[in-house]
Amino acid sequence: MAASIRALLGAYLDGARVEASFEFMGVDTQLIEDGTYFVVECEHRIAGCGGWSRRATLFGGDHSEGRDARLLDPATEPARVRAMYTHPDFTRLGIGRLVLSLCESAAAREGFRSMELMATVAGEPLYAACGFSVLERVEVPTSQGVTVPGARMAKLIS
């Protein structure tokens, strides 16, 4: 995750914003406990990871403030795509698309009809290519006096 954040986000943002993003990006063990997190291995290495959630939190790791573990209603609320990372050595190989397809299929099996996520500037092109549309652009405040840009995106699923 750290290598992905530093290299991939670093291609779009200055160092201060990259470092500030660690305040809200990182491991979310709730996804692991819920059994909704996927890890893709390639050449005996972790190439990428990501998951989906039936819980209300839109983004953030274990250490992030404002998390909400409330279960979502699949009939009226979108599932969340969460904690997507691809190791820089494995970008542009379909890892992100694979994880997204696994998330979409699993969420659809549980009755969800849409998905929502908070994209980084580095992740937004992948999500757009996979059918997600921007709902709003945000600047996430940090304690380091800088904001980190993001895009809340959504997609209908079947």
Question: Can you tell me about this structure?
Answer:
The structure is a single chain. By secondary structure, the protein is an alpha+beta fold. It has one domain (2-58, 68-156): Aminopeptidase. Helix content is 26%, strand content 30%. It has helices spanning 2-8, 15-21, 29-34, 95-109, 124-129; strands at 37-42, 45-53, 79-86, 114-119, 133-141, 147-156. A 6-stranded mixed sheet has the order 1-2-3-4-6-5. The longest helix is centred in the middle third of the chain and has 15 residues, at 95-109. The chain is globular, with a radius of gyration of 15 Å.
Spatial gap, N to C terminus:
30 Å
CATH superfamily: Gcn5-related N-acetyltransferase (GNAT)
SSE sequence, one letter per element: HHHEEEHEHEE
Spans with pLDDT under 50 lasting ≥5 residues? none
CATH topology: Aminopeptidase
Q: Report the count of strand segments.
A: 6
The CATH first-level class comes to Alpha Beta
Portion in beta strands: 25-35%
Question: Which SSEs are present, and which pair or pack?
Answer:
Elements (H helix, E strand, L loop, with lengths): L1 H7 L6 H7 L7 H6 L2 E6 L2 E9 L25 E8 L8 H15 L4 E6 L4 H6 L3 E9 L5 E10 L2
Parallel strand pairs: 3-4
Antiparallel strand pairs: 1-2, 2-3, 4-6, 5-6
